[in-house]
């Protein structure tokens, strides 16, 4: 009985958690992404113009380059590197990301435009969420579609909008 209650509670708790998209092509997803918005995290607390670059490797993994400017666009560059591999199979819809060789977390692509122009990456609990675009700004229509989807799973007040350099400068 206790097991049944835990299962029911867990199901209800995660009922609004978006599922990962069915498939993410590693080659199409690779490259530079601009962070449009995110939830709070300690390692980006002083960041503006944040980006992430996924460099596809021959073994279907990524080298990851996170960059941002400290406090102001053009300020001191903050950079940290990591790796990522698909959690299951060849799709990058669920990704195991590792930083500093020992810290590994699973993230999921929960929204992806068909043309790979915008994406949302999050952990399963929706505590860590990143809205990303291939350009420094998202068109309003796409932005509103993403917000509409996210509001079903999280409090949108938690999103922090990331100032970006209009010229796309990121390092």
- Given the helix and strand composition, which structural class is it? alpha+beta
Q: How would the global form be characterised?
A: globular
Order of helices and strands: HHEEEEEEEEHE
Beta content comes to: 35-45%
The total number of structural domains is 1
The tally of beta strands, per DSSP, is: 9
The helical percent reads 10-25%
Question: What is the name of the CATH topology?
Answer: Lipocalin
Radius of gyration: 16 Å
Helical stretch tally: 3
CATH superfamily: Calycin beta-barrel core domain
For the termini, the CA-CA separation is 56 Å
Low-pLDDT stretches are 1-14
Average pLDDT rating: 90
Strand order of the largest sheet: 1-2-3-4-5-6-7-8
Query: What composes the largest sheet?
Result: 8 strands, antiparallel, barrel
Blueprint of the fold:
Elements (H helix, E strand, L loop, with lengths): L1 H12 L12 H4 L1 E8 L8 E10 L5 E9 L6 E10 L7 E6 L3 E10 L5 E5 L6 E5 L6 H11 L9 E2 L10
Antiparallel strand pairs: 1-2, 1-8, 1-9, 2-3, 3-4, 4-5, 5-6, 6-7, 7-8
Describe this structure in words.
By secondary structure, this protein is α+β, with helices and mostly antiparallel strands. The chain is 16% helix and 38% strand. The protein has one domain (18-161): Calycin beta-barrel core domain (Lipocalin). It has an 8-stranded antiparallel barrel. A hairpin with a 6-residue loop joins strand 3 and strand 4.
Sum this structure up briefly:
By secondary structure, the chain is α+β, with helices and mostly antiparallel strands. The chain is 16% helix and 38% strand. The longest helix has 12 residues, at 2-13.
